Amino acid sequence: MTGLAGFAAHYGTMARHPSAPAVPERPSSAVTPLALVRPILRAYEARGLSPAAALRSAQIEPSILKNRQGRIDALQMERISAHAMQELDDESLGWSRRRLPWGSYGLLIRASLSAPTLGVALKRWCRHHGLICDSVRLHIESQGACAVLTEQHPMGELREFCMVSLLRNLHGVACWLIDSRLALRRSEFPYPQPPHADIYPLMFPGPVRFGVSANGTQARLWFDPSYLDLPIRRDEKALSQMLQRALPVQVLPYRRDRLLPRQVRQTLLDQPQFNRNASAVAQALGLSVRSLHRQLREEGTSLQTLKNEARLDRAREKLARGRQPIKQVAQDLGFASEKSFIRAFKSWTGQTPAAWRAAA
């Protein structure tokens, strides 16, 4: 069963079905802090049950639980979560005042499949979540855009566990519905930075901020609003296959980002100085240069193509806006000479800059 480096992002119905074939395991690093395991143990204690079977299924030695700095790997976290959700019949693993029976989150996805766009699907998912859980409130703000989790009553030590697991779930569901990576602009949490803050960039790729909340009860995931307009690419058959396989809803496996070409182009328009610097473009988007080139190639384009498109847009704007000499336009756009600009512009449009300006 594959898992994320960090906190397992699946819930009950997204774990492997007992009759499904086993998937070869891959070694992973012990990066998941025990601070995200102890709430599961508290859920057992609250029910007067022993977590021994869950610990054995995850191959977690009870002795390690005494180590405040101890960590387990993603596969172990995935196993103890799945076992506990079924044994306790609670997919919240104790953070919700109202128990969420096994299968609850699968039903939320199923109810969102018929939505035309991701924005509609997520709003539906959040609305339905409120019908089964009164401990937190989830909603999507279209302007901005962001997913907002609001604590409805003081959760104490369970606050981090709730916010991390629920927002990871929502983010993973969003990626799965559009079959694309949904890049996060930033993630904000109301509580102080925890000792294990190093795990957060693995769970929420991008800038992470702590102690950020207007009223101390909200966590937010910020992303490009254009994602909300993307169509849903999954159907009932895809959901059934996902639920039957050892594939928890994950974010990291989605290398493709269907908005990446648009985001690169906008970055080049907003930051013309990046036109000659692939590393600056990649850094602005939270990617490595290698990942940037690979993902653009997967989307059928290239950084050079997008650079040319951005340059053409800026050239047209400058030519149409004023009577600036062609030579000055060429310099402003970073061309070595007026001739090289004319040659490039003609290859893009079939016209010289002067002819295009005259016809505009």
Low-confidence stretches: 1-27
Number of strands: 7
* Arithmetic mean of pLDDT: 85
Helix content: 40-55%
* Strand order in the largest sheet: 3-4-7-5-6
Instruction: State the secondary-structure class.
Output: alpha+beta
Task: Describe the global form.
Answer: elongated
Along the chain, the helix and strand elements come as EHHEHHHEEHEHEEHHHHHHHH
Q: End-to-end distance, in Å?
A: 59 Å
C-alpha-based Rg, rounded: 24 Å
Taken as a percent bin, the fraction of beta residues is 5-15%
Q: Count of helical segments?
A: 15
Number of domains: 2
Biggest sheet overview: 5 strands, mixed
Structure explained in plain terms:
- The protein is of the alpha+beta class.
- It has two domains: 12-244, no CATH class; 260-359, Homeodomain-like (Arc Repressor Mutant, subunit A).
- It is built from 15 helices and seven strands.
- The protein has helices at residues 38-46, 52-57, 74-88, 104-112, 118-132, 159-178, 200-203, 236-244, 260-270, 278-284, 289-298, 303-321, 326-332, 338-349, 353-359, and strands spanning 30-33, 71-73, 136-141, 146-151, 184-189, 208-210, 218-223.
- The strands form two sheets. The protein has a five-stranded mixed β-sheet.
- β3 (136-141) and β4 (146-151) form a beta hairpin.
- α4 packs antiparallel against α5 (118-132) and α12 crosses α15.
- The radius of gyration is 24 Å and the shape is elongated.
- 36% of the residues are buried.
- The model is unreliable at 1-27 (pLDDT under 50).
